[in-house]
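Students often ask why we bother encoding 3D structure as a string. The short answer is that it lets us treat folding as translation between two languages. Here is a chain of 21 residues written in the first language.
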Amino acid sequence: METDRLSEIFVLLHLHWFVHE
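And here it is in the second language, the structure alphabet:
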């Protein structure tokens, strides 16, 4: 299952976006 990986990537992306905003 690649759900965990996707979730982690999504969280990381969101965090990055939040920091950049």
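Translate back mentally: The chain has a mean pLDDT of 87. Keep this in mind for the problem set.
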